[in-house]
Amino acid sequence: DLLTRSTSGPPADASRRESHVLGAITHHARYGLQIIWARSTILACGGAGQVFRETTNPKVATGDGLAMAFRAGAAVADVEFVQFHPTTLYIAGATRSLITEAVRGEGGFLVDRRGERFMVAAHPMAELAPRDIVSRTIVEQLARSQDPCVFLDIRARGSAWFVDRFPGLARLLAQFDLDPGVDLIPVRPCAHYTVGGVWCDLDGRTTVPGLFVCGEVACSGLHGANRLASNSLLEGLVFGRRAGVAASIAPADGPRGPSQIISSIPLSEGGEIDLGDVRSSLRSAMWRNVGIVRTGSKLHDAVEMFDFWGRYTMDKIFDEPDGWEVQNMITVAALLGRAAAWRTETRGAHARTDFPASDDGLLAHALWSVGCPEPRLVRVGARAEAMVG
Predict the structure, then answer these.
(1) Pairing, β 109-111 against β 41-43
(2) Which residues contact 158 (CB under 8 A, 6 or more apart)?
(3) How is the beta sheet containing 82-89 ordered, strand by strand?
(4) What is the DSSP string of 298-336?
(5) Is the full-model pTM beyond 0.70?
(6) Residues that are catalytic
(7) Element (H or E) spanning 242, and its range?
(8) What are 277-319's pLDDT values in tens digits?
(9) Per residue in 102-136, pLDDT tens?
(10) Which backbone phi and psi does 140 adopt, to 5 degrees?
C-alpha cells in the first residue's frame, strides 16, 4: 500500500491536496512487511484483468495499483473501458492464452461449430473488424448457439506454413494436440487490457503530490475509449521514461519521512466469509454482469454484490497478499461497476444494450475520487496537465 500523510490547512482542491505520498509499504516473501520512504513514488503495477473470470492477464493483475492510488486520494478515470481480446485459446481447465489477431490477418476465419462464418454479416471488415466489435459478435453468436466457444480456421494455410509463421503459437497448440493445418482452433473473448486507470498528465503526475504512474495502471488519455493494438508499448516505454524522469527531479514540496507510523485499526467484530469464495464469486459476477455486453439492471445488481462482500471483507486486517488482493479486487470491481452504470451510452470498449447509441453529452473522461458519489468530467481534448499538479 502507499504511505500517505494529510496536508495541513484548508486545501484548495480536496482531490489534490488531501494527502501526500511518502513511499510505500511492501511485502517480502521472506522478511514480511517493509517500509520504503521516497520523495517520489511510481506505480507501474499493470492492469486488473483478474477481476474477470476469463482473462489473458497473469495472476498478479488484480488491480492493486489502481486500488492503492484510489485509497490514497488519487482520481481514477475511464475505468469502465476494458478491452476484451476476441480470440483466446479455449481449452477447459487451461489458462486463456492469446491467439494473436495476426492469424486472422493472415487469412484465418472465425466459424461456428458447423464451420460457417458469422463475421461477414456483422461488419464490412469481417474478422478484421475492431476488437470490441469482434468480441461482441462472438458473444452474440455464443448466446444464440449456447456453445462454449467458436473456432478459428486457418487450415487452408497448412501445417508447415503455420509452424514457420507462428512457431511459438504452434508449440502452444501442440501441447493440446492441436495442429492448425488440420484442426480448428477453439477460441472465445477474454478480458485483456484495462484502458482506464489512475488519472495523470503526460509525465505521469497524478492528482496526489508525490505519486506518479505509468503503463497499464495509468490513464493519460492516450487510448480514449478503446485501445489500438500495441499502444501498450507506447504507454509503458515512452510514458514510463517520462514518469521516471519527472519523478527523479520532482521537488520535495510536501511532508517527508521517515517518521513515526501509528497503526490503530480496530479489529473487526463483524462476520467472516471465505476469501477464496469471494474472489471466485467476484470474478464470475464481473464476467457475467460487467463484461463484454452490459445493461443497467445487471450493473446495479453487481455493485450491490460488491458492496455486500465489502462489508465482510474490507474491515478485516490481513497479513498475507491474498487478503490484500481480494480487498483490492473488490475496490476495483466496485469502481468499474459504478462507472459502467453511470455511463449510459455505448462508446468504444463500453457497450450497453439498454443504451446502444453514443451520447455526445458524455464525450468526456469521468474522474472518480474517494467520497465523491458522482464523477468529475473532463471534456475530451482537455489536457491532463490542467487537472494535476
Answers:
(1) unpaired
(2) 181
(3) 82-89, 185-194, 150-153, 109-111
(4) HHHHHHHHHHHHHHHHTT---SSHHHHHHHHHHHHHHHH
(5) yes
(6) 131
(7) helix 239-249
(8) 999 999 999 999 999 999 999 999 999 999 999 998 998 888 8
(9) 999 999 999 999 999 999 999 999 999 999 999 99
(10) -65, -40
